[in-house]
Amino acid sequence: MPIEKAHAIVLRLVDFSETSQVVTLFTREFGKIGALAKGAHRQKGPFDSALDLLTLARVVFLRKSSGGLDLLTEAKLEHRFRPPDHDLTPLFAGYYLAELLLGLTDEYDPHPELFDVAAKTLHTLSREGKVNISPLILSFEMNALRLLGHLPNLEQCVECGKPIAIEGYVAFGQSSGGVLCRRCRPGKKHVSQIRGESLKTLQWYSRCEDNSHQAPPYLISGEVRGVINHSISHLLGREPRMQKHLQFLIQD
Ligand SMILES: [Zn+2]
Known about the structure:
Structural class: alpha+beta
Low-confidence stretches: none
Radius of gyration: 20 Å
Mean pLDDT: 92
CATH class of the largest domain: Mainly Alpha
Strand content: 15-25%
Bound molecules: zinc ion
Number of domains: 2
Largest sheet: 5 strands, mixed, barrel
Number of helices: 5
CATH topology of the largest domain: de novo design (two linked rop proteins)
């Protein structure tokens, strides 16, 4: 069994026995992994309180070759996810981030850039003071969709490739995976009409690869959230469980 070292974000912890836990980690080097952490509940142990939801840690694990659980042997805390306790919204946003990484990534399919964006987002959510969560999360979602190859086509017609003229309302084909021009739209199923302004907002966030930016001159409307929620639900095969707690992401 090879010994591996990685940077990791703790996505899920499930008790396995009185002393052990099964942990799901999103690692920078290997993508998602599932590992058994023996003695995770002991006060003094090899994990030194690093195994907590959304913690960033440096980990050492033994990689199982036969598809079983890996064995976590060490975890060293790098950053604890601890949003200010007077406000639940950064906490919910963090749980949502964990749910997306769990649902949208595969085991041993590394996405180092996505790891970096997630780590940065968690740092920002833990910050004291007012954090503008709505743009931060939309930016994370857009980056995740882009880096995993699922970004909807927002610039050209998804059918014919013609650039989309933003005037009045624009047709967005939910099952086509992007905007549709007037010629290609007839006969398509699951098409919603979105305001040009909403498409501009989506385009702005899809082009923006850094999530430390200032908020753009657009509000994140219910319509914008609707397009993103639908894209993500489609990929997950269900609505995110955190969805009902995320009404605060709508800015209008
Ligand atoms: Zn077209």
